[in-house]
From TrEMBL, chain A:
Places the protein is found: Cell membrane
Membrane-spanning intervals of the chain: 26-53, 90-111, 123-144, 172-195, 282-301
Protein name in UniProt: Carbohydrate ABC transporter membrane protein 1 (CUT1 family)
Residue intervals of the ABC transmembrane type-1 domain: 86-298
TrEMBL record, chain B:
GO terms classed as biological process: transmembrane transport
Native species: Kineococcus rhizosphaerae
Domain ABC transmembrane type-1 span(s) in chain numbering: 87-276
Protein name stated in the entry: Carbohydrate ABC transporter membrane protein 2 (CUT1 family)
Keywords: Cell membrane, Membrane, Transmembrane, Transmembrane helix, Transport
Gene3D superfamilies the record matches: MetI-like (1.10.3720.10)
Lineage per the UniProt record: Bacteria, Bacillati, Actinomycetota, Actinomycetes, Kineosporiales
Transmembrane regions listed in the UniProt entry: 28-48, 86-110, 122-143, 155-176, 197-219, 255-276
Length: 309, 291
């Protein structure tokens, strides 16, 4: 992009407005954008490049850093703890993303009605969105506590077996998924609701007059309209899911038996508890590249599918 | 990808109330009533537990309703923790973030939307590119950078990352692009300077976009946990979220106190949501369409 700008300037400059006018405009323009640009650039581009440099180094933050080449990246391939974290993150992603899309679609369909109390229903579904991960985490720990928790208490009354939930390494991630869905359902619901309302009522009416049943209307008329939104929200939710940290920190802190150790949790402990800034940066970069690659591949595949369909 | 302000419109209209009419009973209620109750249940439990005496909570098997209501959880919370200080810290962080976001992002958004200057396209593309950089990539060097600048372990550390954002600049630019340019040209012909046009004509029209940006910034800065966790150690400088999670580690069994803390941390945003639901929902939608 830089080279492009440099190359085009001498060619077009003579045909532009008189120089004095241009510098005035330029000053005004940069005056408007510079303050925000300095903040955003200083907090993203600069540290982003620094993180890349750090990822080729070994550094504890105090003693001088040593260059280690690609050693950090080689290490992460054989890091058993990181491998576990990758698996747990994938498990969460596989549970969370499809469930959040399905739940969003279902809730949006249900909330897209002109019926009484619809405002109340919408409020009830949307309000958990404002609760922080910290508050949600504390709430989760309480609701799913084996001793005092409401969930086990309900099971007890129903004469169903008590569960360990967050204290059971096989169930902890499921509980975290359930509570993420509770907090995030509003998001996919709002997007689907907007998409549903973009579908003209006449189209659905016409299909009904032609004798289509509800299922046919959904699959033949509604769903094709929702597909692009679904791809986009699916990618967005996947990116969110692989970055899971807050809720884990506020509930299990990676336990029990490391069952909820996620990739970002690993990055955080590597950097800020073990003080391995270089290795932590390498893990963060690896995560970034992998998610970027997956996003690009999925987007291209979807675009191709959309063209042939 | 969809531009945010364009994407906003359907979400906003989706929630405007239609004229009240007598409506027949719909079977959808049978689905929606239990769903709504399930979604509210954690909040009900949170409020109820914050008012439950400790003796009730520790009884086995636990009762569904407290034997009587008490404020002792709140009393202990205010007596034994610096919750008021954390609340104040969080309010300062959020208020500063919102004001700074509104000023810097609307200036930059307007610059990118309306002014022609060399480097404009490059600058805007650079901003867009930063949206794709995940925060955990930046956490480590940002911490080191802040430590070198002597910025860690104080409230400034929590504020600086929230001064402006690429998303905010993008959101405001999209909004300004959708405004008809004629209004500004009229102002220019009447002899207003660029800044006068911006403050007198453009900003008053930008209120809906600014409200969206303010809510987005409020949600982000109020609920942020990772960055304060990394940057702040001193309990006096904790934010609410950091104070709460720290509390949880040490006071795991004091549930009425923990839930009282949760109520204090959640209630302000919840009330605001109930007051400005339409704007909140538009914000959620635009957050999803920011790519």
């Amino acid at each position: 992009m830089t080279t492009l700008g440099v190359r085009s300037r001498p060619q077009t400059a003579p045909t532009r407005r008189p120089r004095r006018r241009l510098t005035g405009e330029a000053l005004a323009g940069w005056g408007f954008v510079a303050p925000a640009l300095v903040v955003v650039g200083g907090l993203t581009l600069f540290p982003g490049i620094w993180a890349l440099v750090l990822s080729f180094r070994s550094w504890d933050g105090f003693s001088p850093p040593t260059a280690v080449g690609t050693q950090n990246y080689q290490d992460l391939l054989t890091d058993a703890a990181l491998g576990g974290a990758v698996l747990h993150t994938l498990l969460y992603t596989v549970m969370f993303v499809p469930a959040s899309l399905l739940l969003g679609l279902l809730l949006a369909t249900a909330l897209n009605r002109r019926i009484r109390f619809i405002g109340l229903y919408r409020t009830a579904v949307f309000v958990p969105f404002v609760a922080s991960a910290a508050a949600t985490g504390i709430l989760t720990t309480y609701l799913f506590s084996p001793q005092f928790g409401l969930v086990n208490n309900v099971l007890r009354v129903l004469h169903l077996p008590q569960q360990g939930w967050l204290e059971d390494s096989h169930q902890a991630m499921v509980v975290i998924t359930i509570m993420s869905l509770w907090g995030q359902a509003a998001f996919t619901t709002v997007i689907y609701l907007a998409a549903l309302q973009d579908i003209p009522g006449e189209t659905i009416e016409a299909a009904r007059i032609d004798g289509a049943g509800s299922a046919q209307i959904f699959w033949r008329v509604v769903w094709p309209q929702l597909r692009p939104v679904t791809t986009f929200v699916g990618i967005y939710q996947t990116l969110q899911a692989v970055q899971l940290f807050d809720l884990v920190y506020a509930t299990t802190r990676g336990g029990p038996l490391d069952a909820t150790q996620t990739i970002v949790y690993q990055i955080w402990t590597t950097a800020f508890q073990k003080l391995q800034f270089g290795y932590g940066s390498a893990v963060a970069y690896a995560l970034f590249f992998v998610t970027l690659a997956v996003t690009v591949v999925v987007t291209l595949a979807q675009r191709r599918a959309g063209r042939t369909a | 990808m969809t531009t945010s302000t364009v994407g906003l419109a359907p979400a906003t209209t989706a929630l405007t109330r239609r004229p009240r009419r007598r409506l027949p009973f719909s079977p959808w209620h049978l689905l929606l009533v239990p769903v709504a109750l399930l979604f509210m249940l954690p909040f009900v439990e949170m409020f109820l537990t914050s008012l439950t005496p400790a003796s009730d909570i520790n009884r086995f098997p636990p009762a569904f309703l407290p034997s009587h209501l008490t404020l002792s959880g709140y009393e202990k919370l205010f007596a034994e923790s610096s919750i008021l200080r954390w609340l104040l810290n969080t309010a300062v962080v959020s208020a500063t973030s919102i004001v700074s976001h509104l000023v810097l992002c609307s200036l930059a958004g307007y610059g990118f939307a309306r002014l022609r200057f060399p480097g404009r396209t490059f600058g805007f593309l650079a901003i867009l590119a930063t949206i794709m950089i995940p925060s955990q990539l930046l956490m480590i060097p940002t911490y080191v950078m802040f430590a070198k600048l002597g910025l860690v372990n104080n409230l400034g550390a929590a504020i600086v990352p929230w001064l402006a954002s690429a998303f905010g600049i993008f959101l405001m630019r999209q909004f300004f692009l959708s405004l008809p340019a004629e209004l500004e040209e009229a102002g220019r012909i009447d002899g207003c300077s660029r800044l006068q046009v911006f403050f007198r004509i453009v900003l008053p029209l930008a209120r809906p976009a600014m409200a969206t940006l303010a809510i987005f910034t409020l949600l982000g800065s109020w609920n942020d946990l990772v960055w304060p966790l990394v940057a702040i150690n001193d309990e006096q400088n904790f934010t609410l979220q950091l104070g709460l999670t720290n509390f949880q580690g040490t006071r795991r069994t004091d549930w009425s106190l923990l839930m009282a803390g949760n109520v204090v941390a959640t209630l302000p945003l919840m009330l605001l949501f109930l007051l400005a639901q339409k704007q909140f929902v538009a914000t959620m939608a635009s957050a999803g369409l920011k790519g």
